[in-house]
Amino acid sequence: MQNKEISFEDSLRQSQIPQQQKQSKKKTNNQDKQDKQVKFTDEEIKIIEMLTPQIKQQQQAIKIANGKLDFLFDGSRDVNLVKPYHEDGDENMYSKENITKRRKLKSDPDVIQSIEGFMSHYQFDINNKLIKENYLKTHIRLAYLLRKDIEEDREELKFLLLEDWEHDSKGNGFMTKADLFDSLFELVDTWTPDADKSEYIGFFELLEQKYKRQQDEKFEQLYYEIMES
């Protein structure tokens, strides 16, 4: 049987078939990807366009707040103050207007998200209970960030840590997630200068940054040294 002669053009045409098939598949795959992309309705697009400037404005406000709040974590914070910052209460924060603002902030979705994000640093057991040891292991790190004046006074530090535990656990011997949320809201509510949403969120952003820079092993050891003293 004689081999069928194939012209150069036929040979070239056949060699192009696999490539054409690949291109066809590629187009199909790209089309599939496009089909899978999220499609928004006109109403949803309008909402997104409306919210985008607000989101940018909020991000800018938080950025400004971060710069304003950075002094809280400065070791020389209290040097030129008549009273240490943590003792210098602002009576204006207890005005009817500010009390209302502070209560609203506790239920603000963005503030809630910030607090719940930081709650991940606390280790709950399988029953969703936070025991004393796990609370203190994290809390001691907050003390070193916000109360640098007592870093060397371990007796005072231990007293304050245990006092906070009794207050936050309400004497129950453990804390629930709701208890921890209340505790962290009280923390931000106490330390921020103003009843301002951007400051509350900014506080936890800064706290998160500072917390992550701390050495885990150092504070694990420090916890046992202080509690056993």
TrEMBL record:
Feature: compositional bias, Basic and acidic residues: 1-12, 29-39
Region named Disordered: 1-39
Domain of life per record: Eukaryota
Protein's name according to its UniProt entry: Uncharacterized protein
